[in-house]
Structures are given as structure tokens and as C-alpha cells.
Amino acid sequence: MKGYWKYFLNKLLWFLVTLVCAFILNFILPRLMPGDPVAAIVARLAQGMSNATGVQAIYQQYADLFGTNRPIYEQFFLYMSNVVRGNFGYSFSQYPRPVSEVLGASIWWTIALQFPAIIVGWLIGNTLGALAAYVKGGFDKVLLPVSIFVSSLPPFGMAVILMAVFAVNLRWFPTSGGYGFDLLPSATWSFVWSVIVHYQLPFWSIVLIAIGGQAIGMRSMSIYELNADYVKYSRFLGIKDRKIVGYVFRNAMLPQITGLALSIGTMVGGALVAEIIFSYPGLGYTLLNGVMGQDYPLISASTLIVTIMVLIANFVIEILYGFIDPRIKAAQAD
Amino acid sequence: MSKVVMLEVKGLTTKYITRFQEDVYAVDHVSLTVEEGRSLGIAGESGCGKSTLALSLMGYYFPPLHYMSGEIIIDGRTITEMEPDDIRREILGTEIAYIPQAAMNALNPTQKVIDFIEDVIQAHDPYKTKKEIYDLARKSFEVLGLPADVLQKYPVELSGGMKQRTVIATSVILSPKVLIADEPSSALDVTSQKMVIKMLKNLMEYGFIKSMIFITHELPLLYNVTDDIMVMYAGQIVEKGTAQEVVFDPLHPYAKGLMGSIIVPEKGLREVELAAIPGVPPNLKNPPAACRFAERCKYVRAECEANPVPLHYVGGGRAYRCILPEKELRDIYAKEARTREVHEHAR
Amino acid sequence: MKHTIRQIFRSGKFVVGFSIFVTILLIVIVYPLIITGEPLGIIGQGTFFPPGIYVSVYDSIGSPSYTLFLDDAAAKRIASKLSNDDRLAMKDWLIADGVPENQIDITDTEKLLDLWEKEYDPDKGLPGMTFAKQRYYQRLNDSLEGLLSTEAAIIAAKNAETGVLEETGVVKQSDYVNVGEVASVRVLPFGTDNFGRDVLTELVAATGVSLQIGLVAGLIATLIGLTLGLLAGYVGGLMDDVIVFITNLFLVIPTFVLLILISFSIGQEQRGPFVIAVVIGFTAWPWTARAVRAQVISLRNRDHVNLSKLSGHSIAHIILTDILPYIASYVIMALILQISLGILQEAALSILGLGPKTTEDPTLGLMMQWAMIYQAHILGKWWAYFPPLLTIALITFSMNLMNTGLDQVFNPALRD
Ligand SMILES: Nc1ncnc2c1ncn2[C@@H]1O[C@H](COP(=O)(O)OP(=O)(O)OP(=O)(O)O)[C@@H](O)[C@H]1O
Ligand SMILES: [Mg+2]
After folding, report:
1. Pocket test for ligand 1, best of B15, B16, B42 (most atoms within 8 A of CB)
2. What is the pLDDT of residue A127?
3. C-alpha angle B51-B55-B57 in degrees, rounded to nearest 5
4. Residue A158 lies in a domain
5. What is the DSSP letter of B150?
6. Are B199 and B209 in contact (CB under 8 A)?
7. Domain spans of chain C, in order of start
8. What global pTM score does this model have?
9. Which ipTM was obtained for this model?
């Protein structure tokens, strides 16, 4: 167990370091670009918001929030302390709603959509990949090109295709939204049903994309493991093939878990765009609204939240991996 | 007194079928016998089919390797006539065992040594309890000089030499009659190599195995470890005999050339030059029908490339594959040695 | 070298991928030579004209007319105006209006129209009917006007002096023109987009630009990744630690987030296709750096490298002659992957509204964005979004196939 703790602390430290770096990047990148955000804000204010008191309020709010006239490191600490308290300022495009309120609604939609979808896609993809490597023949000959094609589709492409087929042509599912536009969030059966129905297409579009990529990875890992020396050795000691296949798939699976930790950022990025296609009320759609409304505070906060979500997911996977792969504990012990 | 024959192989031929559906004949009509208490060394340059022969001797074939013809008899049982699953259960590990060339990677990285041993033993005897298996494993490991706590470790926690010795101990855990070791020491440092060799030598003494086939590039090692030596070239046996005979009195020009490349600080071997044999072995996809070594042979004649050359037995298990008579070959080598001496004096 | 290339071209996957890619490339190069004209020129007034052959109505009138007696002409004319859905809708209206259901036979066109003419009142709203539905019936009614007439249509022109309409010609129902003789005909295989632009022409131009974006992004990412990977792997020490730290950092921080932040901060005006490509390139290198480093480390202690070190060659010399050639195949695969990733990233950014802001150069991503904003996917205007989507998929598919093929040639363990 000592070995595991060492591993855990190591990962925790790395998680904190990446978190801080992500913070810094989120703060500094916009400020490195020509035209700092507050200047841009002021300029945009001048371009005209219809609500005059709103303009004044926002201006005041941002002067305080960013501490424009103070040195950059002070600005950074100000930003830090604001963020830690969940204060991201007011949204430009949805004034007078604070950014935290806008995001608070959408985060849960995204989490509930993406993480189950990615996990389901990962499971199905790995099963198919392992089967392709083991069964070979026709199944493999069909599965590999299909997987390559599916994983070549951009995630929003899969979303558009599913929508065209199942929502527009067959009308089995609604085209957009997270629930019927005529309903209000409530604990009624009709609302829950509506959410379930609206969930299907975005969910499967993310699942299908994930399946493609994972199946390819698992297939090559399994082929590699099937050719490993221990397979031959175990066979020549009379161990049954079924048992050996068990070794192989367990070993091929492990790198797929670390692979998932590394690719989860890319997957989430793609899935955000898929959300947009379905006007799903998650972070992707919020980001789009932010971009359309030139809403800097909203964008900055969304990107920060997405990053934090990805870092946490990454951390959790690494921690679980430490439990699953016996070598981690062993290697850290000495 | 006639010894019990542990392993007898008659005319064994196997081939690889590559994914382009080409045939590679890597073991071609190989016959050999190993008696109880004796060890046989197999030498030959890279790609001549040593490892393939080792695999073929197990009698358990899976693609791309395929059995063509010949017989393998282990302690009186003709295993080439048995069903694959019976071979797996009754022969592999218990009658004949194998140490792979890349023993460094031969253990499943995510399994403790003891768990693997458990799988091995239960594959043959499903009713053995964990406790019995553990006791057995601990006893053999201790006899072989391996600390018992190795059993509770994962392969990554073991050093290269320790991994190698663990593989050896695991291979012989069911006391097989024949052990085939394919270059068990090639990837190790000198100290570990010595330990591994010592361990292999002990195996027979301690009764873990009854006979052994040892494959290596390193001829001096063979001379020290094994009783008999067989030289392979391009899938065929070109020379066999006792270690003494093959090292000090090789007959086949290829064996002669190979022995020329030994440096052993022993009488009569010291002055022999380190001679790599120029040229490359023939492609095993379509090897020449006649003498396969002809292309690289210093003493080649027109007849060499006319007909297949059979293996000539010259008595006492000694054999070589060359059209020239024994005496003529010895004369040629003697003359060569004289001219070389003259040259060296002149310098 | 020659041998390797021959082996590569023996891989079925590579050949298929290569063929698709070359075909796309050829189309991008050849098409503009044949169909000249502004790719973003607005040729249609209105949105989303469906794919088809557009024949000038005015020129048709002036073209020589031929008389053909075709049996099914009348039936086709009615069918094109009065679909089965329309008939059902008419039946609904009539029933709601109080006509008994058994008197309505929607298969008998003549009777149905008679009944309709007698009963229909455009001003009459039925209970529960939405306004849109009411408008639909009015439009349907207008289009049915004279549907069964066998009269010829009269063409009239205003007299320039008196302003009175004068008959200048008659178009009989059996009059035909030969499309080949009509002065102005335009084929729009993919119709027009939301701005009334020819989708195919736009698509070809967009493919070209997207490929360039992918190439620039891929080259930048590969160059950075290669340099960092070589330095980290070969030089080692502190250099390695620093580079590994930065690489791992950028591997876990989602690239897409960085892209959004940077693209947004750059501002609309500065965001040309080239700038976007550079930004993508500068965020995409970590994968390559990591992979190259691993390869270099496995090479670092090979005999030929040690020999080169002993002979006192400089680091640059060793890297160029003893390391690069051995990882070349690997770097090429990484480059191909980066190019296709670049194209995908551009598209994703564009959909988010952060793609290149341009009035001259379309990209595949921008075409998708326009289609999405104008709801082409919900309205079922497939020709506006499907061609760019398919093109993106084909480009990345062909590149992934080539990579899989290369992988199987260079990593024999992956062969089946
Ligand atoms: N899986 C395979 N498929 C096809 N041909 C093979 C395969 N494995 C080995 N061969 C070929 O069979 C021949 C004999 O190979 P083998 O591995 O038995 O040689 P070896 O004597 O053990 O060499 P080394 O000393 O390098 O281990 C070689 O020509 C090799 O190319
Ligand atoms: Mg070998």
C-alpha cells in the first residue's frame, strides 16, 4: 500500500501543478494578445449596449474585477481570488446575469452528457477492438476500415448525420435542445421523458466517435500483445488458450486506460462542438453564445471550467489506473 | 550398457507460411537423439533455424509454423501422432519444456510469479490446491538457489538475471524429461550469464530434468556445457558428434569455419584465427536443392551443386553433410594449418 | 528506398487512402481551370436552391419550340403540383368544413378539384387551425389555379408607347424546348447555399484552403514537435526534464480550450486562414514531441550512434545523419496525422464562430458554420452541409488509411 500512496501523492502533485498552470494560461493568454480584454471590453461598451445603466454597472464591475490599473501580478491574484470565490463577473450578452449563474446551469448538462458517453464509447470500442484482433478474418476486415472511417469523422459531423437521419428524416427524436421547448425544468414524468428523448442523439454521436478511435487502438494493442513472448511461453507450458487470451486482453486494456486519460481533453473538445449542433444546453452551446455575443467573461470562465473538468477526469483515471495495474504499486515500492 | 533414449527425432520437417502465403523451410529433415543424462548443443549462425527447431521439437504447432513430416518420440511416446489438446495437457511442461530465446519478456508483466506457476500447474492438474502449489514452488526455487520471495513479485521487480533464472525454475517445475533452452544467457551480463549456466548444469544433477538441448551462438559455451554438439546450416544438420569431436575435429567446411571463430584459451585453440565466414546463407523460401553451403564454401567443386547431399554417418553418432570423404577433408585442413604456420613464422 | 516505396504501395490500405487523397487534390487543382468565376460570388437571390439544372425561363421562351405529344405530360404536371400530402391536406380541410368523408375521393383528381373549387374559401379559418396552416391552404389554392386547363398560356409584353399588354406568343402544353438550345443554363450539382452561392464551386475552393491550413498547421506542429523531441531525447538532462514537463502539461490541458482562448483574443479582424493555421500548429505539437522523444531515446544508445559519437561528430551532425533517417518514417506518419488534425480543428473552431474571418476564402469549416447558422441541417437542406462534411471526412479518412498502411509496413508486429 505504501507504493500506492507514493503514486497517489505523485499524481496529486502533478494535478495541482497542471491546475495552476492552466489557471495561469487562462489568465495570461488573452492578455498576451494585441488589445487586452478590459480595453476590448471598454471598446465594446462604447459600441453600444442599449441599457445605459447596465453599461455603467459593467464598467464599474470590470474595473474592480480586473484591477486594470494595477501591475499584472496583482491582477493575477485578484483574478485568482475572484475565481476561487466563483466570481466571474457579469455576462455581457445576458446582462444582468452573472457568469457563474449562466455556467452553473450548463455544466451539469455537459457532465451528464459527456462522461457517460465517453465511458460507454470506450467500453464498446475496446470490446470490438479486442474481438477484431482475436477473431481476425472477415470481422476484422470490415471493422478496421469502418472504425477508421468513423474516427475520421469530426464529432460534429457524426452529430449532423445522426440528426439528419433520425431527427429530420425519420423524426424519431427531436432536433435540438435538452428538453421540449414548451416545458419547464421540473420533476414531472413528462419533463424527464423529454430529457431522455433529447439526450439520445447527442449521446450516441459522442459514443460512436469514441468507439471508432478506441477500437483501432485496442486492436493494435491486442495484436501486439498476442505476439508477445509470454504468450508463446505460456502456451508451451501447456496453459489453455482461453487463459492466455485473458492475460492478453488484460494487458492490452491497461495502456488503453492511460490512453483515455491522455485523450479525454480531445474528446471533450470534440463533444462540445457536437453539443452545439444539437443546441444542447451545455457548455458547448454556452461557449457558442459567448462567441456570438463577444462575451469575454463567459468565454474565459467556460474554458477554465472545461479545463478543470478535464484535469479532474484525468486525475481520477490515473488514480483508478494505479489500483488496476499491479505494476504501479510494485514499481513505486522500492 | 545402453542408455535410455529420452528424445528421438526422425526426419522432422516444418515450415513457416508467411502472410504472403510463401513457405519458409526452416527445419528440414532433422534427426537426433538425446539419451538420459546427456545434453545436446545446437550451434549455427543467426537465421539458420535453431529457434524454429526448438519450437518444432515441442510437437505443438500454431501459425505461422506448420508441421510437415517426421516423428518426435519422447521417452517412448510418439507425440507427433497425438491430438494437440492431449499434447498440451500430457506433454508440454511435464515431458518436454522450453525456455524461450527472449526469456526477459517471457513472463506476463501483470502477474505475480506464483500466480503464473499456479496457472501452469493447474493446466495439468486442476485439483492441486494453492497451498500444495506454493509449497512445491518454494521447494524447487530454494533448491535452485532462488529466494522464495521472488514468488510474490511481479516480473518488473526482478533484475534481468533473476528473471531469467525464474523462467528456468518455472519451466522445470513439473520435472520434464527434456528441457530445450534457446540461448538462455545471450542477453545477460557476464555474472548473470555464469549463474544461469551454473543453474542449467545443476538441473540434471538435482533431478529436475533428465536431458537437455542447449542452443547458442557461443561455441565455447557449448563446449563447456554440453556433451554433444550439432551444427545447423540453413535448416539442415551439417555436422554432429561429441563436443570434443566437433570442436577439435570438425569435418564439414561450415563447421570448420565456425570453429575457426572461437577463441578459447585452451591448448590447440589459441592460435586459430577469428574467421567470419564470408557471404550470406541462402534464402529459405527456395533453398538450393544441392549442397546449401556450396555458394560460400572455400572448397566447392562442380559436383557440389549437382545433387542433394545426404548426411554421412561415420559411426558412433558422428555425422556430416558433405560429398568429400572424411579423409580428404582432414587432409585439406591439415595442409591449410601448415601453410598458416609457415606464414606466421615468416612474420 | 525504392524497395520501401514499393512495399508501401503494396499495402492495400495505403493505396486506397492515397488514391482518395490524390483524387481530391486533382479536383481542387483542375476544377478552377474549367469552371472559372468567383468561388464566393453570389449567383442566386434567395437561400438554399436545391441541386439541379437551372434553365433560364426567359431564354426558353425565345428558344425554338418543338411540339411533342407525350402521354404522361399532363399526369406529371398534376403530380408535380398536387402531391399526395397535398391531397390528404385537402381532404382534411374539406372534412373540417363539413363535407362528408365518403364523398371525398382523393385519387380522382378531377372530382377532388371540383369539390375544392366549390367549397374552399381562403378567408375562412377553421377552428384550431394555425396561421401557418391557413397560409399553406391559400398557397395550395393559388397553385391549383388552372391546373386542369388545357388552354395554351399567352405571352404578352407591354407596348412601349401605349403601355397596353400585347400578345407576343402562345405556349401550348405540347411545346418543348431543347435544353441545349437555351442560351443560359447553369448546372448546380449541389445547389446554392444560404447566401445564394454555388455550393460546388465554393466547396472546391474551400477544400483547397482547408488543405493549405492543414498543411501549414501540420508542418508547424511537426517541426516544433520534432525539434523538442530531438532535443529532449538526445540531449537529455535538464533540457529533457524541462521539455517533458512542458509537453506533459500541454498534453493534459485540452488543446481545444487553448485554441478558443487564442483565437478569440486575436480578434476577428486578424483571423485569416493563415493565422488560424499557425495557431493550430502552435497548439498541436505535444503529441509529436512526446512520440519523437520516445523514438530518439530508443535510438540514442545504438551502436552506430555511439560510433558516431566516438568519432567526434557534432550533435547536429549526429542528429541529422544518425538519428533523423531512422525516425523519418515515423515523422512522416506524424505529419500526416497532424495535417488531418489541423483540418478537423479548423472546422471545429469555425463552427464555434472562431474560424477564419474572411470574405475571399471559404474553408470547409466555414461552409459548415454557415449551413449550421442558417439551420440547413434542421431544414433538410442536405446539399449545404453534407458535401463539406463528406469532404472533411474523406480527407481525414484517406490520411488515416495511408497512416495505417504505413504503420503496417514499418511495424511488422501489427501485421495480421
Ligand atoms: N514467424 C516467422 N514467419 C516466417 N518466417 C520466419 C518466422 N520466424 C522465423 N522465420 C524464418 O525462419 C528462419 C529461421 O529462423 P530462426 O528464428 O529459427 O533462426 P535462429 O537460428 O534461431 O536465429 P537467431 O540466432 O537469430 O535466433 C529465418 O530465415 C527466419 O527468417
Ligand atoms: Mg533463435
Report:
1. B16
2. 92
3. 115
4. yes
5. G
6. no
7. 2-43+194-414, 83-143
8. 0.80
9. 0.85
